[in-house]
Structures are given as structure tokens and as C-alpha cells.
Amino acid sequence: MKHPLLLPLLLLGTVAAFRLxxxxxxxxxxxxxxxxxxxxxxxxxxxxxxxxxxxxxQSEEEQVEASGYxxxxxxxxxLQLNPSALDTNFQCPRTExxxxxxxxxxxxxxxYILVTIPHIFTVAQHTCRNCYRGNLVSVHNFATNYNLxxxxxxxxxxxxxxxxxxxxxNHYRCFFWxxxxxxxxxxxxxxxxxxxxxxxxxxxxRGGQWQMASCNRPLPYICSV
Length: 225
What we know:
The chain has a domain of about 140 residues: Mannose-Binding Protein A, subunit A (Mannose-Binding Protein A, Chain A, Roll), CATH 3.10.100. Helix content is about 40%, strand content about 20%. The chain contains five helices and eight strands. The chain is globular. Keywords: Lectin, Signal.
């Protein structure tokens, strides 16, 4: 015996399924695409601008890194230059351009000469060696550092060369004194040593703390003789 209601029920089910399918949302519908566009606009930063910002940040980081490498390279070249070839008219400093101190706390026989005429680090070391038979000063204790700071406090310049420098590449860089003595004392200023600033060590005439500077920067300097 056939059921007379079976066929109408099947037809109703098919129609209902068809209506549900037509009203179901699709990701490729125009309404949905409009909603997605509004979400991107609501973020406040267009997608293209985000990509440009990322490229700009990466470019700036690469420039900073490249600048640091260039400073290291320039300073290494400066330290290796023959200073006598930098100035064929080289002359030792005049007496009026120097200040001499004999003896200091803890070192009665020490003798220091402050040269007030600015020179780059290599020429300063050359002058100390060839004019005074010494070297740029090395500092091994607080008393000496304080004495040198007092010696330079009347200068108009904010920094003077002492004999410290950093040499080597990447993770194999170490500090040295130009006279070859042991690196056993430091008096760094806040944020120092900063090798991005240079590879040679200066003493601040106000406070006596140390900072890194480019070896090609002309500064007054202190010889230990």
C-alpha cells in the first residue's frame, strides 16, 4: 500500500533545502568582501603602508649596522697609518702649547705632558713617542685618573686623548694601551664603552670619565714620559 503523503513531503524538503542554500553566506559574495574591506580600513593603517613601514625600519637598521662597520673600518685604518706620512712638515709642540706635571699620588717619578694643540689619535701617539720618548698615557688607578682630570680641567675642549683603544673584529675586539701595559682599570661614563662612536678612548675634562670617540677626531692629548 502506497503512502499518499510521502511525495508531497519529499517535495517540501527539496524546496526548503534549495532556499537554505541560496541564503547561506559565501566568502566571495559582494557583501562579505565589503565587510572585509571595512575591517582593513578600520585598522587605521592601510596594508600597503604597513609594508612600507616594515621596509623602512629594516632599511634604517641596516644603515645603523653599516655605519658601525664603517666606523670600525675607518678607525682600524687610522690606527695602522704611519703618522709621519700624514704631515711632511711635522714639528714637535712648542713649549707654550704644553703643560707639564711631574709626580702624582702613587707615582712620584711619573711625568705627564698635556699637549693643547689637537691632533688625531695616531699623530698624538707619534708625537708622544718621537718628541718626548713616551706614549699616550695609560691609566691604572683612580689616583692617576683624578690627577689627569685636574690637569685638563682648564681646557676649553671637553675631551682629551689618553692611550686606550680597541682593536680586532666582531667578537674578538679587545682594549689595549698604546704603551703595551696591562688593561686593569676603567672609568667609563654611563652608556660606555660604545664602539659605535669610535675605537679610541678619551678622558672627559669635566669629571674624568672615559668615552669612545673616532680615532680621526683631532683632540688635545696627554703623553706619559
